[in-house]
Amino acid sequence: MSGPAPHEARRRAIKIAFGELIGKIGGIEAAAGFTRVGKSTLARYYSLAPADAECFPPADVIDDLERVAGDPIVTRMMARGQDYLLLRDVQAGSVSIIDLHAAIANCAKEHGDAVASLLSALTDLALTPAEARRVIREMDEELQAHLRLRALVAQVAESE
Fold it and tell me: Model's pTM, two decimal places?
């Protein structure tokens, strides 16, 4: 027997991610205070029960709660499901040579951390899903460092 159809797996993943979002905010009681829908509706959005199979959170509810959580949990999962990577947009302020040097050093550090994490995971000549998730987190931090450096350089380019 095969697993669920791809669209069913994505729908399940949305519900699971929404449940994680609710948990990060502090539960249904807390989350209900930050959006237009009530506790019972929020619960249906992450319920995996067959009766709630077609009940999903609307975009404005996801947006409200992700802003409160400070983490786009559902949006990131949906982007990943379409083979996109969601990264925080980095805004640079005024730029000094010290800022550039610090950003370059941070890129080097994060790159080293990502490579070290991957090499450490591969010492047994295998890569487990848990190790892969840890490596991906390190790689995402590296990408954020490069985006910060890019934002600083772009700030200089746009200062004419």
Answer: 0.67
